[in-house]
Amino acid sequence: MRKLIVSLIILSSFAITPAFAQVKIGGFLQGLYGARLDDKNPTATEYTAAESRLQLRLEHSGSNAEFSGKVDFFYDDADIQTYDWELREGFLKFRLGNNVDFKAGRQILTWGTGDLIFINDVFAKDYRSFFVGRDDQYLKAPQDAIRMEYYNPLADLAVVWTPRFEPNRLPTGRVLSYYDPLMGEIVGVEATGQPVLPPAKFDNSEIAARLSRQIGAFNAALYFYRGFYKNPNGYDLALQSAIYPRLNVYGASARGSVAGGVFWLEGGYFHSRDDEKRDNPFLPNSSLTWLAGYERQVAANLTANLQWQAD
């Protein structure tokens, strides 16, 4: 089914794009290998990565529409010999009038101000890739979504609808160990089962919105998200399994030039919808978090960056 959808997107892109459009084909081939020095780690292997990866990329752009497709083929021998592929991108972007853009399909989504610290960026992350040392681009996991952006002199509005909840990709214990709060220790191959995903229905789709405007030297934004915690922060006693509790996020940010550098400030309120009374020890409480950061070039090819996060 996914291959059929991608094919239809490609054909649609070529059909509505003028003949003088540009087509770009590219990609890369890379290897990634890593191992830990501590042989007492509870994982199934001492290797963190033993991977060969080929990415093929096709980009097609015109005056009113564009298509981007990225496919990764990889072989990984760190644990169990695995041959697989992943569609990283497969979206069609087109414009309606002069003020509205639509982007539909598999895509990488990001917003917010933090540098590897995420508050209002509630889109899926791939922490397995981050911890084994893949390129930074692989920290963001792709997800199937529809994104609408409306541009106006007063403010710009971006809305993202994800029909199927996309969680963060976390260590499973076989290649990367992690701390299990239920067992009270670092676990590996003896880790408990996989968390239970929310049922695939319309009420469980994700919606995220950002309203942004340039105010003087600063870009200011308001954020909203309705969905689920991206990590399995809850536990269901009936299911005897970790779960993804329901979540709303309300946030704001500002980023702009200060004293020859770039300053940013961002905050968010995480409303735990499944623990309104704060009386369930197996569910996360609502919380408030914020961060401040400053970045400035201090010498040629040298930039200093400082961030502070508090809850």
Description:
This protein is mainly beta. Helix content is 7%, strand content 51%. β12 and β13 form a beta hairpin. The radius of gyration is 21 Å and the shape is globular. It starts with a helix and ends with a strand.
Topology:
Elements: H1 2-16, E1 22-35, E2 47-61, E3 65-76, E4 82-96, E5 100-107, H2 127-132, E6 143-150, E7 156-162, E8 178-180, E9 185-187, E10 206-215, E11 218-228, E12 234-236, E13 241-243, E14 246-258, E15 261-272, E16 287-299, E17 302-310
Antiparallel strand pairs: 1-2, 2-3, 3-4, 4-5, 5-6, 6-7, 7-10, 8-9, 10-11, 11-14, 12-13, 14-15, 15-16, 16-17
What's the short version?
The protein has 311 residues and is mainly β. It has helices spanning 2-16, 127-132; strands at 22-35, 47-61, 65-76, 82-96, 100-107, 143-150, 156-162, 178-180, 185-187, 206-215, 218-228, 234-236, 241-243, 246-258, 261-272, 287-299, 302-310. The radius of gyration is 21 Å and the shape is globular.
Structural class: mainly beta
Ends distance: 43 Å
Quantity of strands, as a count: 17
Uncertain segments: 3-20
Secondary structure tally, helices:
2
Strand content: over 45%
Walk across the major sheet and give the strand order.
1-2-3-4-5-6-7-10-11-14-15-16-17
Order of helices and strands: HEEEEEHEEEEEEEEEEEE
